[in-house]
Predict the structure.
Amino acid sequence: MIEVEKGFNLTEEQERALIDGAEFLGEKKFTDVYYDDTQYSLTLSDHWLRKRDGRFELKVSMNKPLEERISDQYEELESDEAILQYFKAEAGKTMASFLEEKNYKPFCTVVTTTRRKYRKEGFNIDLDAMDFGYACAEIELMIEDASSMEEATQSIIQFAAKHGITEGNKWGKVIEYVKRNNPAHFQAFIDAGIIY
């Protein structure tokens, strides 16, 4: 599956409008630890390797160049086997030995994200509040193949606009965390065109 998502920083009024009439799917708390090497080879290629509550996941970018990007598109790999296969790791490698070999270490730890999840008109809505004082919303659609990405993006934009939301956020929680805690890594994002 391919996740097409667009992030937003909402006012209280926009949040109320967005979740009005939505199906509340639940609230959960989780811990995210993101990994990269000292050259930032994963994040600067728009790949996001994380351990969420003890389980590894990899978001592989399918994004257009930044100047053409309206939403974010990622293929999500959700098992150690799929991640190791994606990186063409030797047979028999474990995630631990792979991380050590590649020198991938934690660079961002969000101890607590509180996520409220909703569904409305076929869209998934995630409202996230992080323990370091940042909050954001994501509106997303899951699609079967890449040929539907542009259509999904336009659907998200129209859905948001219908609720009075016309501007997306500049970046999500990881980049905000890096901005606050690692100026060199943040500058590397700018230099690489990951953010503007």
